Amino acid sequence: MFKKIAIPTNGEVLDAHFGRAAEFTVFEIEGQEARKVEILSAAGLAHQHEGLASMFKRNGVEVLICGGIGGGMIAGINSVGLGVITGASGRVVDVAKSYANGTLVSTGSVCQEHGHHGHH
User: Fold this and answer.
1) Every domain of the chain and the residues it spans
2) What is the pTM of this model?
3) Would you say domain 3-115 falls under CATH 3.30.420.130?
4) For a disulfide at 40, which of 9, 24, 78, 106, Cβ 3.0-4.6 Å?
5) 87: phi > 0 → left, psi -120 to 50 → alpha, else beta; which?
């Protein structure tokens, strides 16, 4: 039995701003192994809580791993039964491996200031 995780991606690294990520790398986690399975495009879904949450759910994602994320997005993700781990950074492959081997710990950090990101 495997679990699918998604990580907001900018090139090969975790995109620190979840709501503006253009794509998400999906990994299947089985035991302590992380296998990259696909890239999901988030084109047109920037800061759309329900749209992003639905996309993850449709694709079988169970956990989202991110750096910064707002409380509204966390609520949207949780409302469709998905988990969220915050405070991650680095190469997406390394983040997925850390999750698989149990060493990735959520900081619980939530983005509070959105004015500088173009939210109004």
Assistant:
1) 3-115
2) 0.87
3) yes
4) 24
5) left
Q: Which of 31, 16, 23, 25 is nearest to 93 (CA)?
A: 25
CB atoms within 10 A of CB 38: 13
pLDDT at 114: 45
> Using an 8 Å Cβ cutoff, are 108 and 86 in contact?
yes
**What's residue 4's pLDDT?**
97
For residue 85, the one-letter residue type is I
Cα 92 to Cα 114: distance, rounded to the nearest angstrom: 24
What type of residue sits at position 19? G
Q: Mean of the per-residue pLDDT values for the chain?
A: 87
* 15 vs 105, more confident: 15
Question: What type of residue is 91?
Answer: R
- CA atoms lying within 13 Å on the CB side of residue 65: 29
